[in-house]
Amino acid sequence: MKIKSLASIPAAIAIALGATASFGQPAAAQSDTSFYCGTVDGKPTTLARTSRGNIPMIHWETEYFSGSGWTPQKRCEEVSRRFQEFNEKGWLAYLTTGELNGYNVICVTEEPGEHSDRYQLGEAGMLMTLRNEEDNPSKVLRELMEVRDGARNSPLLHSNAVLEYDSQGRLYVDLEEFLFRAATVQD
């Protein structure tokens, strides 16, 4: 009897490890979600292609960085590429704010409470640079999540399932939950 129960331990461990491995990556990375630069209402827009449809992530309007060659179209293409790359690497669970080379940035992290600097990969965890003089990083991140249908003060943003704050007050957006709840568009 003891031999049988001891023999089942490796099987139980294998099942438990398999379950842990399958839940280890964020669902956004496990799903068929992909990210690309498209056009919505005539504006370059970073979109998420999901099984529910296309979800606008960022409408690119500001010409602030155009003087350095980063037009809205070029930023759309680059940030969309980064979304896709981070998704494929399994890093795209949460969006948060950070600082890189003295600039405020929107970046990715796998868990709330893990600042994007934890990767220590320089620009590798950074999605986009913000205008330091004009952009409050947490406000910009909240506004990005409201872009999907032009809504402001959406009930989505007041859901604990989508937004989280760490003990220092840093904002985290659960990307899987956002993609599950956000409105879709035709591009």
Short description:
The chain has 187 residues and is α+β, with helices and mostly antiparallel strands. It has one domain (26-181). The protein is built from five helices and eight strands.
Structure explained in plain terms:
It contains five helices and eight strands. By secondary structure, it is α+β, with helices and mostly antiparallel strands. It has one domain. The longest helix has 23 residues.
List the helices and strands and how they pair.
Blueprint: H1 2-24, H2 27-30, E1 34-40, E2 43-50, E3 53-59, H3 72-89, E4 94-100, E5 103-109, E6 126-129, H4 137-146, E7 163-165, E8 171-174, H5 175-181
Antiparallel strand pairs: 1-2, 2-3, 4-5, 4-8, 5-6, 7-8
Q: Strand percentage, roughly?
A: 25-35%
Q: Strand count, sense and closure of the main sheet?
A: 5 strands, antiparallel
Cα distance spanning the termini: 63 Å
The average pLDDT is 73
Which percent bin holds the helix content?
25-40%
Beta strands, count: 8
- Report strand order across the widest sheet: 6-5-4-8-7
The low-confidence parts are 1-30, 118-122, 147-159
Characteristic key phrases:
187 residues, alpha+beta, five-stranded antiparallel sheet, 5 helices, 33% helix, globular, disordered N terminus
